[in-house]
Structure prediction request, 309 residues.
Amino acid sequence: MSAVWVDDEIIDKKKERKIELESQKLEKRLCRNVGQAIVDFNMIEEGDKVMVCVSGGKDSYAMLDILLKMQQRAPIHFDLIAVNLDQKQPGFPEHILPDYLKKLGVPFHIENQDTYSIVKRVIPEGKTMCSLCSRLRRGILYRVAEELGATKIALGHHRDDMLQTFFLNMFFGGRLKGMPPKLVSDSGKHIVIRPMAYVNEKDIVRWAAQQQFPIIPCTLCGSQQNLQRVQVGNMLREWQTKYPGRIENMFSALQNVVPSHLMDGSKFDFKNLKATGIADPEGDKAFDAEEFPTASFSTSMPSLQVVSL
Ligand code: SF4
Prediction:
């Protein structure tokens, strides 16, 4: 009897150790990905005051958490201030974020603005409110950034958000346009950064569960999520399961753009293109079919058909 008990105890300890190791690995990966994005796009510089937009969702909690860790380790000095906009949705648990931020010991500001009533008044019943809601939120957050003297505004979008936006723009907007890791705001006054640009959503979900972030759902207002975004999200998740590596390849593609092999005359001067007479082994062969490394497929993939034309 006691031997069984001891065995169980050993198994529990082993399990605990495994969970701890996995958590350490995940934390390392998150910090590495965020650090790499910060360096690659020069997101944060000496003396910056970064306004970290915290909505109460998993992504922004994770961003704040990782940025606080990076702040401890970074070779430069920068300040962080967490900002939440309380939009007065009915049932918004207004104590959760201040309590959490106080416990963290991070400077924070809660901006109270009843955008919910405006959105409700303007958008007809049954229509999705998210676009007006986020437009109002954006304007308020820009103003708050100015008042706080923030030099950067950090948003919690991650790699999968960026890919989704890329496909949404292509499928529904007819544009090759993604979600940049760093940009100047439409007001021209702010630098917006996305330090989670290299982080995949799965890691954030696991980290949020491990850290037990007090998640506040965005849909408190009763608005439905954008259906097109949901569709594209599902498509990407399905691809990821069926064709491992495809998401990573697509994400790399966003960083390897070849304007001469697209069709935008404003990005490449096709009209005035002239033969140089200089051979280039790396140049376009034009007649040869492109070759790609063999993809790895999961066993659930339907069999491929080769079609001769
Ligand atoms: S779900 Fe509600 S609170 Fe969230 S963006 Fe849409 S309208 Fe705004």
Notes: Residues 297-309 have pLDDT under 50 and may be disordered. The CA atoms of residues 26 and 206 lie 8 Å apart.
